[in-house]
């Protein structure tokens, strides 16, 4: 292929060919907005956000799942059933995660008063410090993604995100 020829995949993406052509470009360097459909953009943005989250988790000596657990618990104690629903797994699947969190002194399980079978999970003080530091660092890193937007564009972006998230949480098909 000569220097002036366009690689076949890029030519197809520019013409709109191939349903998933836009998904192939992972980093989007030099991306022309006209070449990016919304689905491809969301997939690429998801990859960027997940990479930031995973990198920050590693920097804080946490797995991404441990980081999520700690951040979910920042709002206060949660029951195992509620956590399982939040993670989209069965209660039994949380046992290993909780065993590791307790072993590291980040969270603890305790009985729920008045319900012998129920267990709640609470952050320990080291867990709260780790969650707070992680949450702040991730927030700062993610803020950089939209740092170049004007205040009006940032507010519009925030409002659109809020609408999408609200629809997903309230839609019967999102469960």
How much of the sequence lies in strands comes to 5-15%
What is the average of the pLDDT values? 82
* Major beta-sheet overview: 3 strands, antiparallel
Q: Supply Rg.
A: 21 Å
Count of individual beta strands: 3
Quick structural gist:
The protein has helices at 8-15, 38-59, 64-73, 80-87, 91-103, 125-145, 151-170; strands spanning 78-79, 107-112, 115-123. The chain is mostly helical.
Considering the chains and any ligands shown, give keywords for the structure.
7 helices; mainly alpha; 175 residues; disordered N terminus; 58% helix
Task: Describe the fold and architecture.
58% of the residues lie in helices and 10% in strands. The chain is mostly helical.
Layout of helices and strands:
Blueprint: H1 8-15, H2 38-59, H3 64-73, E1 78-79, H4 80-87, H5 91-103, E2 107-112, E3 115-123, H6 125-145, H7 151-170
Antiparallel strand pairs: 1-3, 2-3
Helix pairs in contact: 2-6, 3-6, 4-5
């Amino acid at each position: 292929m000569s220097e002036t020829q366009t690689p076949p995949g890029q030519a197809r993406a520019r013409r709109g060919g191939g349903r998933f052509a836009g998904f192939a470009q992972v980093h989007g360097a030099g991306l022309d907005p006209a070449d990016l459909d919304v689905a491809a953009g969301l997939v690429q943005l998801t990859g960027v956000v997940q990479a930031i989250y995973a990198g920050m988790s590693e920097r804080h000596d946490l797995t991404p799942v441990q980081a999520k657990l700690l951040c979910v618990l920042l709002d206060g104690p949660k029951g195992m059933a509620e956590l399982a629903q939040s993670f989209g797994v069965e209660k039994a699947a949380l046992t290993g995660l909780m065993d590791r969190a307790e072993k590291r002194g980040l969270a603890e399980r305790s009985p729920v008063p008045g319900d012998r079978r129920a267990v709640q999970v609470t952050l320990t003080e080291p867990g709260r410090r780790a969650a707070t530091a992680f949450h702040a660092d991730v927030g700062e890193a993610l803020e950089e993604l939209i740092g170049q937007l004007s205040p009006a564009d940032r507010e519009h972006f925030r409002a659109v995100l809020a609408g999408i998230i609200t629809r997903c949480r309230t839609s019967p098909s999102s469960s």
